[in-house]
Design a protein that fits this description.
By secondary structure, this protein is an alpha/beta fold. It has one domain: Carbamate kinase (3-Layer(aba) Sandwich). It has nine helices and eleven strands. The protein is globular, with a radius of gyration of 17 Å.
Length: about 260
């Protein structure tokens, strides 16, 4: 029987990319994601099951979702859109994902609230830090949409900021079929080596693709570790919060181990 004392991370922030919601068989090249944006029902159901399993343990869970399965700001810029305007469209795309994920979680009897950085009172609460914390304390999953509410910032940065604001114990960085951080792209380089533990500073210095550098700096400044893991592997979130070694741990260690 699992008791609260067995839980290593009692309050977590889960970062999901919009593209991950598409599933591998829907993924296309970045240039055409916007025109083929979609959600794979099996993928979002699996994610919801993972969240529900960890939630049943008593873990407080917040989620930040990207919107790249519908629209990416970089794609809008390529069409000639103003960068800020394109980013705002991308923020709205994240809110669509949040509302869908909320409904899937509700279907699994998980009490859920969506808070948005862009005011949208007809569908979600505005982001209010103390209210978000209160929801978590009451056992509700909180999904943050709309990024930071400002253009020119990624949802990685939004995840780091929200994690700091709610005083999360860890950020769980969910990847699609990539089980951690590698010294090179494992999809194109079969000789890429997985890194088990690495410091924030080394991630920035080596330019490793964990989160964008601004987000990593926020985590470093606030001593929030990041666990990079493959969400496609069943039970990963539950095992991580219980302290099992899954994926790659990015933290305040002096150096990494390969």
């Amino acid at each position: 029987m699992i008791i609260v004392g067995d839980i290593k991370y009692k309050r977590v922030l889960l970062k999901l990319s919009g593209e991950a919601l598409m599933g591998s068989h829907l993924m296309v090249n970045a240039a055409s994601i916007a025109s083929r944006g979609n959600i794979d029902p099996e993928v979002i159901d699996r994610i919801a099951n993972e969240v529900a399993s960890a939630h049943k343990l008593g873990v407080q869970i917040a989620i930040v979702v990207g919107g790249g399965n519908y629209f990416r700001g970089s794609q809008g810029s390529a069409w000639g859109m103003d960068k800020a305007a394109a980013d705002y469209v991308g923020m709205l795309a994240t809110i669509m994902n949040c509302l869908i994920l909320q409904e899937v979680l509700k279907s699994k009897k998980v009490d859920t609230r969506v808070q948005t950085a862009i005011a949208m009172p007809a569908v979600a609460e505005p982001f209010i830090r103390q209210r978000a914390i209160r929801h978590l304390e009451k056992g509700r999953v909180v999904i943050f949409g709309g990024g930071t509410g400002n253009p020119l910032f990624t949802t990685d940065t939004a995840a780091a900021l929200r994690a700091a604001e709610i005083k999360a114990d860890v950020i769980l960085m969910a990847k699609n079929n990539v089980d951690g951080v590698y010294d090179d792209d494992p999809k194109s380089n079969t000789n890429a080596k997985k890194i088990d533990d690495i410091s924030f500073g080394e991630v920035i210095q080596r330019g490793l693709k964990v989160m964008d550098p601004a987000a990593v700096s926020v985590c470093q400044d606030n001593s929030i570790p990041i666990v990079v893991f493959d969400f496609a592997k069943s039970g990963s979130i539950e095992r991580i919060v219980l302290g099992q070694k899954i994926g790659t741990l990015v933290g305040s260690a002096v150096g990494g181990k390969k």
